[in-house]
């Protein structure tokens, strides 16, 4: 869901152990393994609050993912016909800076943003998608889109932080924001070179010259980097001009996945248009899902690989966006059996991500592997203004989840520390 399951596009997003944390891990891995770095995808303008703000979803520290998890929560509620609490919408809208941008979290929204405010494309793009869907925030959406356009890189893409090299995840979430706001992404071009977001996105895709099984995959940022499942899931969805909300293709829709054809001797063969790039990315994802038992893997540097629920969810959404019903069905079944504990621990962004998975695949979010995702999501924040009677039941057990867990906050901090030199020099920025 691609800022950090989105740093998740699995955050601890996205990605959020959804999108924001995956981005943190991706960025940290790039720093540690390659020595240069993609900037972390989640920055906070304020320190951790002593008391959580009224209207905020989740009970954990919002310093790195407040706007991200709030945006996904409100968007998921709107998608299933739940009208969010006015206080929740007000909190999100109040996080916007005067220039239209958002940062990860502002403890004092009444205080004007200044030059020290670390504006971030990921929460900005997430907030655009939520506010556009809710309606009644046309001016805020317009200002945010204008700011996003103003920080587009010459290659047509975006980084998390303005002035840093583009990355696949940030470019993808901005494409989703542009589409949600009624813009045509292909018409949004860079000031120098006239490059589109799709031009930028396709630079991260690996073609047939890639050694191993990475054909069609996307890297997070650095040229020559290894295939990245998080970036691939985000980019394949973005290449279709889709955001977090993907409408179901319909009952029985099943278009075969078309991976890159690298058997014709043309080692330079690769995707040369967004639709083909999306198909090639999905081809890579299907191969990885089958290889790992219908789920994707992730690991912090030095840690043992383990199932990545958020990234698997992103892959299902990508496959659903391509009307690949049969390919999406198997990992969807895996999610229904294995996502409950992850969502409970991770909080609102994770519940929201699964609600959006259910929506994209035409699955009932109120009976997802035995879990009522809608009720669980509603219980992590203020009572919705209007919801179906079945969603009003208590689900207090889900309130423990929130934002980033301690290990991910540490990971993000390490990534920020390791990449700070890169950020300073580049200004003169995922569920691995």
Describe this structure in words.
Helix content is 43%, strand content 1%. With 432 residues, it is mostly helical. Strands 1-2 form a two-stranded antiparallel sheet. The chain is globular.
Say how many strands there are: 2
The amount of beta strand, in percent, is under 5%
Enumerate how many helices there are, as a single number.
15
Instruction: Provide the helix percentage.
Output: 40-55%
* Arithmetic mean pLDDT: 83
Structural class per helix/strand content?
Answer: mainly alpha
Task: Output the helix-strand order.
Answer: HHHHHHHHHEEHHHHHH
Radius of gyration: 19 Å
Morphology call = globular
Q: Please give the order of strands in the largest beta sheet.
A: 1-2
Q: Outline the biggest β-sheet.
A: 2 strands, antiparallel
What's the end-to-end separation, in Å?
Answer: 14 Å
The poorly predicted ranges are 2-19, 24-41, 392-400, 403-432
Give keywords:
mainly alpha, 15 helices, disordered N terminus
Could you write a compact summary of the structure shown?
The protein has helices at residues 20-34, 66-79, 86-94, 121-134, 138-150, 168-180, 197-202, 229-238, 274-291, 309-321, 325-338, 340-346, 348-361, 373-378, 406-426, and strands at residues 296-298, 306-308. The protein has 432 residues and is mainly alpha-helical.
């Amino acid at each position: 869901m691609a800022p950090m399951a989105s740093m998740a596009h699995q955050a601890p997003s996205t990605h959020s152990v959804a999108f924001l944390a995956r981005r943190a891990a991706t960025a940290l891995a790039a720093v540690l393994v390659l020595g240069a770095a993609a900037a972390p995808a989640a920055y906070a303008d304020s320190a951790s609050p002593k008391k959580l703000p009224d209207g905020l979803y989740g009970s954990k520290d919002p310093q790195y993912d407040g706007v991200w998890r709030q945006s996904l929560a409100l968007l998921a509620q709107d998608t299933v016909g739940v009208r969010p609490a006015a206080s929740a919408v007000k909190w999100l809208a109040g996080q916007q800076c005067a220039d239209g941008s958002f940062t990860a979290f502002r403890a004092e929204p009444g205080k004007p943003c200044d030059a020290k405010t670390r504006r971030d494309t990921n929460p900005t793009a997430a907030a655009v998608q939520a506010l556009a869907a809710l309606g009644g925030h046309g001016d805020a959406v317009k200002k945010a889109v204008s700011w996003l356009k103003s920080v587009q890189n010459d290659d047509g893409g975006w980084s998390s932080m303005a002035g840093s090299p583009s990355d696949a995840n940030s470019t993808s979430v901005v494409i989703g924001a542009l589409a949600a706001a009624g813009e045509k992404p292909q018409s949004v071009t860079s000031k120098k070179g006239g490059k589109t977001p799709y031009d930028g996105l396709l630079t991260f895709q690996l073609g047939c010259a890639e050694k191993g099984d990475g054909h069609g995959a996307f890297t997070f940022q650095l040229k020559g980097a290894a295939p990245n499942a998080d970036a691939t899931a985000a980019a394949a969805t973005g290449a279709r001009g889709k955001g977090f909300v993907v409408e179901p293709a319909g009952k029985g829709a099943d278009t075969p996945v078309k991976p890159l054809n690298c058997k014709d001797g043309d080692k330079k063969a690769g995707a040369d248009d967004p639709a083909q790039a999306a198909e090639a990315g999905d081809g890579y994802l299907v191969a990885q899902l089958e290889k790992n038992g219908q789920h994707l893997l992730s690991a912090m540097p030095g840690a043992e690989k383990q199932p990545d629920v958020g990234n698997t969810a992103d892959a299902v959404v990508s496959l659903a966006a391509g009307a690949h019903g049969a390919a999406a069905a198997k990992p969807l079944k895996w999610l229904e059996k294995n996502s409950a504990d992850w969502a409970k621990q991770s909080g609102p962004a994770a519940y929201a991500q699964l609600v959006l998975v259910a929506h994209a695949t035409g699955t009932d979010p109120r009976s997802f592997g035995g879990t009522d995702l809608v009720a669980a999501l509603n219980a992590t924040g203020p009572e919705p203004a209007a919801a179906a009677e079945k969603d009003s039941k208590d689900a207090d057990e889900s309130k423990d989840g929130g934002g980033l867990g301690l290990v991910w906050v540490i990971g993000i901090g390490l990534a920020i520390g390791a990449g700070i030199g890169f950020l300073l020099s580049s200004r003169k920025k995922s569920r691995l």
